[in-house]
Amino acid sequence: MAIPNQKLGLVMSPQEFMVALCMWLGIPVFASPPSSVRCPCGTVIDPHGDHVLGCGHGSLRNKRHDTLCDVIFNTVLVDNRDCKKEQRCNSHNNARPGDVFHPDFLQGRAAYFDVTVRNSLQASYLLESATQPGAAAAGGDSEKIAQYEDEVNAAGCDFYSLVVEALGVWFPSSLEILKIIARRAVLTTGTTVSRAIQHLLQQLSFSLWRYNAKLILDRLAICNVDNVM
Fold it and tell me: Bigger pLDDT: 79 or 7?
């Protein structure tokens, strides 16, 4: 039986939907503004909103990340009620190598999952992303593994980097881990494997695009741009 969109959290406001649709189709989100209209960080806001997706100004980018973490956490929690958020790997420092902690994920080993959103449209990734889809996600995955994997492995646990680009491309190994997470939840929920994977990926994709739209709408409001498509 299909789960209603409301229960999956798949609901946007009409304005959020229009902005997300424009981004998906590559249509300008608003009429091209004069160059004097700038983001609070000082960068000119482009009519497609590309800059806003990766800009660190304000709190919505963190909320986008946290919402994805919540979706994953709620799924692993179905599999094991002892899963937690923001756990330290050891008592010697305050580093939290994972947004979500699972005490018994694969082969009896505890696992730390770290969620990262990378903007393939930012200047440092743009050239490579134009010729190699997923380049930004690959870069994010390498950075996270270099930062945390050795420490987590030394503690006898596994580290999993879950990296998605702002426009929705998951790094291949991240996608496979998400599918395993969904399959494990099937043992408790009783749904089919294919439907569990579909629901998880659908919730993640929807949450990502909804917050992309929220980011752009919020930034345009701050900059007094009212001619949103």
Answer: 79
